[in-house]
Amino acid sequence: MDFPHDLLSLGWDEDWNALFTPHRAAGLVPARITAVDRGRCDAHGPDGPLRAACAPGLAPCTGDWAALTPGDPHVAALLPRRTAIVRASAGRTSDGQVLAANVDTVAVVAALDQPVNPGRIERTLALAWESGARPVIVLTKADRSPDPAADAAEASAAAPGVDVRTVAAPDGTGLDAVRALLTGTVALLGASGAGKSTLANALLGADRLATGAVRAADGKGRHTTVRRELHPLPGGGALIDTPGLRGVGLHDAADGIRHVFSDIEDLARGCRFTDCAHVAEPGCAVLAAVASGALPGRRLDGYRRLLREDEWARSRDDARLRAERTGRHKQIVREQRRIYRERGTREDRR
Fold this sequence. Notes:
Layout (H helix, E strand, L loop, with lengths): L13 H6 L1 H5 L3 E9 L2 E6 L2 E7 L10 E4 L5 E5 L5 E5 L7 E6 L3 E7 L6 H14 L2 E7 L7 H10 L6 E3 L8 H7 L3 E5 L6 H9 L24 E4 L5 E4 L12 H7 L1 H7 L16 H8 L4 H19 L3 H31 L1
Parallel strand pairs: 3-5, 8-9, 8-11, 9-10, 11-13
Antiparallel strand pairs: 1-2, 1-4, 2-3, 4-5, 6-7, 12-13
Helix pairs in contact: 3-7, 7-8, 10-11
């Protein structure tokens, strides 16, 4: 078997090798895209790092496996992606922006020098679950928190079924436990100032990435990472560091949202109506859990908000979805007005 052993540490395997067969027959060579910049790519081929131009019509992303022309390298084709982290584009189009491809583990990174933000964690986890990769949560700067264990418990409450680890990268506290979770190709996702680059340097065993201080006023960073870049990890696998995400817009992420809120999805199976919207319906198991304190109301609010946002994003280019969304919104408004009217009538009778 013609197997590019120099690419094994970056994730090349028998399945990729089989997919590459027709490209090999055409005289092309395999490589993994390590960074993309203005129509050109940095890549790692069988003979090491190289710089390649991109053929028209291709949109390679960090983490892609590509077929390159030898000699003067050009990206001639991309292999099908196994996974892809996609967020909503910042513009008015409904297209998604691919942040990284062929990722096995997504590390959702948050810093403990600021209060834990469960809503931000839930949103980023939805992006991670939807990608097809396995998410984990890494809470950095544990040395700056008065109670890292309580912070980890709060993050866990927002992430059923997801491993949570705390780490203080400067002295390595918790780093071995984090490293054990990060398998295959790992992508770091989080806001600016979350400590992604510091964590990446600790995992890489060298100060390859620039780091910077955060503003004391709001804890926000200064975007020391300016592009998505893939680095080989010392023990095998690869690490993709990404610029800080100011906003995490969801793009066609309904399955990811259901993963994040699996506790609500489980409760919903006990609702009287199969199409229960968990607003004011009789026999709603989700509302009953909120009333009893078994489910935080904040969590139900976050679930509704992310589903609405995702549905709106999908409806931008789908007339049928737009009509359904408008109809459901009107129905909810009518139901809420009815409840307010009845409540007012009961109060008047007292």
